[in-house]
């Protein structure tokens, strides 16, 4: 598959990095085929991150992800999931390589600026979580 779902997280939007991050994403060869600025409700965030519901950081993660607007987007590129996770870097920005988006824009393990789907199956589920099919531009 050639699609992935990203979210520019509340920290990065608040810090004014939305434009820079979109620019970095398109410069890296990804095409944006759906895009929206929105704010997650607590119910949305719990559903989106339900895989982490038993983790100690779950409550903080939901609070953080609902703390302000986010930008959700569907991105297209060959090998999109793997390529995009390379572009964003390690979950903890301290471990993220130079030039990755988390190295450039993230504040901490939790406030880590950007999300990327971790599998083709989740890319599809997450894209349909944020967008109706008719809102995703598939040529
Ligand atoms: P996402 O792209 O956001 O899914 O990040 P990821 O796939 O790199 O990490 P993962 O799915 O394991 O965790 C989801 C999110 O939970 C991370 O992006 C962090 O914001 C947060 N998180 C993960 N592990 C920790 C942790 O140990 N402590 C805290 N405070 N937050 C964590
Ligand atoms: Mg993840």
Automatic annotation (TrEMBL):
Entry keyword annotation includes Metal-binding: yes
Cofactor(s) the protein requires to work: Mg(2+)
Entry superkingdom: Bacteria
GO molecular function annotations of the record: ATP binding; metal ion binding; nucleoside diphosphate kinase activity
Reactions performed catalytically: a ribonucleoside 5'-diphosphate + ATP = a ribonucleoside 5'-triphosphate + ADP; a 2'-deoxyribonucleoside 5'-diphosphate + ATP = a 2'-deoxyribonucleoside 5'-triphosphate + ADP
Chain sites annotated for binding ATP: 9, 57, 85, 91, 102, 112
EC code: 2.7.4.6
Domain annotation Nucleoside diphosphate kinase-like: ranges: 1-138
Record Pfam families: NDK
A GO BP annotation: CTP biosynthetic process
InterPro entries to which the protein is assigned, alphabetical: NDK-like_dom (IPR034907), NDK-like_dom_sf (IPR036850), Nucleoside_diP_kinase (IPR001564)
Keyword entries, A-Z: ATP-binding, Cytoplasm, Kinase, Magnesium, Metal-binding, Nucleotide metabolism, Nucleotide-binding, Phosphoprotein, Transferase
Subcellular location: Cytoplasm
Active site: 115 (pros-phosphohistidine intermediate)
GO cellular component, one term: cytoplasm
Enzyme class (EC, first level): transferase
Similarity section: Belongs to the NDK family.
NCBIfam families: PRK00668.1 (NF001908), PRK14545.1 (NF011116)
Subunit (UniProt): Homotetramer.
Biological role stated in the UniProt entry: Major role in the synthesis of nucleoside triphosphates other than ATP. The ATP gamma phosphate is transferred to the NDP beta phosphate via a ping-pong mechanism, using a phosphorylated active-site intermediate.
Protein name: Nucleoside diphosphate kinase
């Amino acid at each position: 598959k050639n699609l992935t779902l990203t979210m520019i997280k509340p920290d990065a939007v608040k810090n004014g990095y939305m434009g820079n991050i979109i620019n970095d994403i398109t410069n890296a060869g990804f095409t944006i085929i759906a895009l929206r600025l929105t704010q997650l409700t607590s119910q949305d965030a719990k559903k989106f991150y339900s895989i982490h519901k038993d983790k100690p950081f779950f409550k903080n993660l939901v609070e953080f992800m609902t703390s302000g607007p986010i930008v959700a987007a569907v991105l297209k590129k060959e090998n999109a999931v793997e390529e995009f996770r390379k572009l964003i870097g390690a979950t903890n920005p301290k471990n993220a390589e130079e030039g990755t988006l988390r190295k450039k824009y993230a504040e901490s393990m939790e406030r880590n600026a950007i999300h990327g789907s971790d599998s083709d199956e989740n890319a599809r589920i997450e894209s349909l979580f944020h967008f109706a099919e008719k809102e995703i531009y598939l040529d």
